[in-house]
Amino acid sequence: MSKLKIAVQKSGRLYDDSMKILNDVGISIDNGKDQLKASAKNFPLEVFYLRNGDIPQYLKDGVVDAAIIGENILTEKGGNINVIEKLGFSTCKVSIAVPRSFKYKNITDLEGKRIATSYPNTVKDFLDKNNINAQLHIINGSVEIAPNIGLADAIVDIVSSGSTLFKNNLKEVEVLLRSEAVLAASPMISAKNEAILKKLQFRFQSVLKGRQSKYVLLNAPNDKLDKIISVLPGMRSPTVLPLAQEGWSSIHSVINKNEFWEVIDELKANGAEGILVCPIENMVI
Length: 285
Known about the structure:
Layout: E1 4-9, H1 13-24, E2 37-39, E3 45-50, H2 55-61, E4 66-70, H3 71-77, E5 82-86, E6 92-99, E7 114-117, H4 120-129, E8 135-138, E9 154-159, H5 163-167, E10 170-179, E11 181-185, H6 191-211, E12 213-221, H7 225-231, E13 239-242, E14 248-256, H8 260-269, E15 273-279
């Protein structure tokens, strides 16, 4: 039986988040410590544990069929690799940072400056689009120390919380790219494995929709049903069931997590009572 070969980062936050979503879609992987490859027990899938920076080449060469990879790495090294699903976790930025003493006003202040980075292609594209000439120093690791040792005037690196920049007396001044984990496919994937990948993508979509939603149950007097229903979007429309108490109904619906508290405030203002909120594991639409 054909198996989909998928690459994930072998360690770090992206590894943890990748294994979590695979677990959340019901895929059981028997991965012992320090294994480079493991098979799923209940899905036609093989997982390859690789360095994040090596994954784009494995995709290009068809060694793996798909990957869960940082969008920033794919932009830097991916070429013609297709992103088929954004996954919403392991978010970060690729940003320009300069010493806090640098009186930065706009991108033209980088003209003629030295920039240290491990993202030369991303930086070059950005500078070319803005007609800026700068000298690039390619560094793998510890980019943030470059200005402190006199190697560069600025850096381009990943920024998550900004604490590393602060510790190194740097400030973020431009965002080149906002990144998150993505599901990417090899241009050499076979038709059989592409069909398996679509099944995996469907499972991912169901979990991601569930993560972005809350299930809400509430009681409402019948004379206020129309107002309350107008507040609730639902998947198609809210479910309304009569309560044992005459003149009252129970309403069931789904709320987007990002709009949750605003909707709850409106529901209360319109007479909703006994509001219960539950997490959703999956949403199959």
